[in-house]
Specification:
globular, alpha+beta, TPR-like_helical_dom_sf, Serine Threonine Protein Phosphatase 5, Tetratricopeptide repeat
């Protein structure tokens, strides 16, 4: 390039981060975000914009530094907005911070958000903590306000045709073969120490039913379908409209090692490139 400026470097950093190449993103950025945030004003006399504050809040929240998140909010010379509180709410989901999640969700509700996502995230945080009454209350509020949760589904392209799956989907004519393939994988995964995370099954049912529901999440069905319909060794590319759960992420890592294939899952956050039991995101998303 004849000229490399902040736009071009930010594009490279964003691309690395979007694809889950966290180490390369940090390498391009050279240091921690707080150092550069402070250098802007103290070293170069540049007053940070609201977007800079939002980026720092997002970074601090993702690593669980909620004390610094709250200080950043109090120091910020701008009005907060839905982007900042959505970022905080997603960080609370990662780290299970119920108190701040409730504050973030209430902020989003008061800002007139017509998106069901804050309700779903807050309800899931309560459900994961076993607070079923609180989870039900949030869901009831969501329904009373006429909002609906987006249905999760995954899709995969095989021989130039798109196949779509929802969780526990029984409509595909090859469902029996897909379940057999998954059961074969689960036996191998069990030998290698895989332990399902039943906290990802966000329903008030017994553990056996929770385990059963985890087995057939939409991305797993899509992967099973691709495994039995594509040549050995070829990469598998799955798209998903929502974020992958923690248990699916752990399971797909092991699957990629067992079947000796690259499995690329594009969820609502980023690309996850699973290879030899490792994900490109470094288990950080």
């Amino acid at each position: 390039m004849p000229e490399r400026n902040s736009i071009s470097w930010n594009a490279v950093i964003s691309a690395y981060a979007h694809y889950g190449q966290a180490k390369n993103a940090i390498k391009m950025f050279e240091e921690e975000c707080m150092k550069y945030f402070e250098l802007m004003e103290h070293e170069y006399g540049i007053s940070p914009w609201k977007g800079h504050y939002a980026c720092v809040v997002d970074t601090l929240g993702r690593v669980g530094r909620f004390d610094k998140v709250q200080k950043m909010l109090s120091d910020m010379p701008f009005e907060d907005d839905p982007i900042i509180w959505s970022s905080i709410l997603h960080s609370c989901r990662i780290h299970g911070n119920q108190d701040l999640a409730r504050v973030a969700a209430e902020k989003l509700f008061s800002m007139g958000s017509t998106d069901a996502t804050p309700y779903v995230i807050l309800s899931n945080i309560y459900a994961k903590a076993g607070k079923w009454e609180d989870a039900a209350r949030v869901k009831k509020t969501m329904r009373n306000r006429g909002l609906r949760k987006e249905s999760g589904y995954s899709w995969v392209e095989v021989k130039q045709k798109i196949y779509s799956f929802s969780s526990n989907d029984q409509t595909n004519p090859m469902i029996s073969e897909m379940k057999e393939e998954l059961e074969r994988l689960y036996k191998e995964m069990d030998k290698q120490g895989y332990k399902p995370d039943t906290s990802c099954a966000l329903h008030q049912v017994d553990d056996d039913l929770k385990l059963e529901s985890l087995k057939y999440h939409s991305e797993r069905l899509a992967i099973a379908f691709a495994l039995i319909n594509t040549p050995p060794g070829t990469p598998i590319r799955v798209m998903k409209n929502l974020s992958a759960c923690l248990d699916c992420h752990a399971a797909i890592k092991m699957m990629s090692k067992i079947v000796n294939r690259d499995i690329i899952v594009r969820d609502s956050s980023r690309f996850h490139h699973f290879k030899d039991g490792v994900c490109s995101c470094g288990d950080y998303w």
